Amino acid sequence: MSIHLPTIRNHFPALQLSDAGKPRVYFDNPGGTQVAQECLERMNHYLVQCNANKGGVFRTAMQSDVILEETRQALQEFINAKSKHEIVFGANMTTLTFQLAHAMAGAGWLKAGDEIICTRLDHDANVSPWLRLAQDTGAIVRFADINPEDCTLRLDDFEQLLNEKTRLVAVGYASNASGTVNPVAQITAMAKAAGALVFVDAVQYALHGSIDVQALGADFLAFSMYKIFGPHIGVLWGKFDLLDSLPAYNVRPAGNRAPGKFMTGTQNHEGIAGTLGALEYIAWVGKEYGVSHAAQFPHFASRQLHYQCGLAAMKAYEEDISRHLLCGLQAIEGITIHGITDLSRLHQRVPTISFTHARINPTDIATRLASENIYVWNGHFYAWEVVHRLNLMESGGMVRVGPVHYNTIEECDRLLDIVSCL
Ligand SMILES: Cc1ncc(COP(=O)(O)O)c(C=O)c1O
């Protein structure tokens, strides 16, 4: 059974809002999705019923401890980590990645002349921390290039860069600009064969597809719950022995064991509770609409299976919406889509679609759409490297339309109508 849009949309209070009679159309999802009711309820419950610091002997403090561990357990299952002690909470992916890079510098894992591979397709949060790590250690950063015609990574270039000096490969699972899904398992296998560590930025992928960190074989992976129908919380996963052996900047009473040592100060407890709610929403989608996908995941059961099925059900619908938008945009004179447009390759992209117009700059297009209460991002979206590589920085970057499973075909048509009349 495919997802039932009115029921799905009822789980998102923000989708019911209008301004001056114009319903809000959220195509800004790659910058942050709207929040599921389950998340709001968990946050509200936490703040009213359990609000306290952790580690105490009284009811609310103990409840806070329980919620943190429950969420860790749920996240372990969500990405199929080996242990919940591999899950670190933080402010956001960027902060966690800088923390990790800083810890790696302190650990002496890299020395002068070692090499780090980044890619031209990545968000800067998966580039700048590694540039800093290189600065701190004397290592060298090399960039794997892209095929500009479809914004896919050039694996031949990546392979050429790999050598015995490569200590770290930092790669994105999906691009926040072009929507390209990288062959991360293949890249990880190549990096591992060269003896390198692998860090995966899964921020743009985690809401569009299932992640199995054990099958992937990477060492670290990070994502953010505010891009997955949840609150502003970042999540870092790392293999336990690696995380545990890294030095962390923290206060002495925090101890020196993973994952706690990476969590400085009091965490965003209500956000962690809300994270559990967002995951409950995904599991609900799986139970309700994802049963027909269960055969794809023979090695998962109960809640883990529900997560996988939920994401699979969303993905099936997202492919319909990608097809509709790609065809509609390509039919408009003057539009260039920067990314995969071949409809037989939709499995190689998420529905994030970025384009430029031959005559009208991205800010003007986004502003015109905003005047109709249709929200899209314009500019470089911190996908600094790829926007430079495509020579689009000076002309204002791109317009990014980022639907998710709660967007409708009618919303796409409203956007297409406006863009076609520009
Ligand atoms: C691919 C990608 N990586 C990293 C980030 C940074 O995430 P955060 O805001 O959690 O630091 C973003 C944010 O847009 C992103 O799209």
Task: Supply the key terms.
Aspartate Aminotransferase, domain 2, binds pyridoxal-5'-phosphate, Aspartate Aminotransferase, domain 1, seven-stranded mixed beta sheet, alpha/beta, 40% helix, four-stranded antiparallel beta sheet, 422 residues, 2 domains
Briefly say what this structure is.
The chain has helices at 5-10, 37-50, 59-78, 93-107, 128-137, 155-161, 184-193, 213-216, 240-245, 269-289, 302-330, 362-371, 384-389, 409-420; strands at 18-19, 22-23, 25-26, 87-90, 115-119, 140-144, 146-147, 152-153, 166-172, 197-201, 220-224, 234-238, 335-337, 353-357, 374-375, 377-379, 398-401.
Q: How would you sum up this structure, described in words?
A:
Helix 3 (59-78) crosses helix 10 (269-289) and helix 11 packs parallel to helix 14. The chain folds into 2 domains: 5-34 and 302-420, Aspartate Aminotransferase, domain 1; 41-278, 3-Layer(aba) Sandwich (Aspartate Aminotransferase, domain 2), CATH 3.40.640. 40% of the residues lie in helices and 15% in strands. It is built from 14 helices and 17 strands. It has a 7-stranded mixed beta sheet, with helices on both faces. The protein has a 4-stranded antiparallel beta sheet with strand order 13-14-17-16, covered by helices on one side. It has a two-stranded antiparallel ribbon with strand order 1-2. Strand 5, helix 5 (128-137) and strand 6 (140-144) form a beta-alpha-beta unit. It has 422 residues and is α/β, with parallel strands linked by helices. Residues 31, 92-94, 123, 125-126, 172, 176, 201, 203-204, 224, 234 line the site of pyridoxal-5'-phosphate.
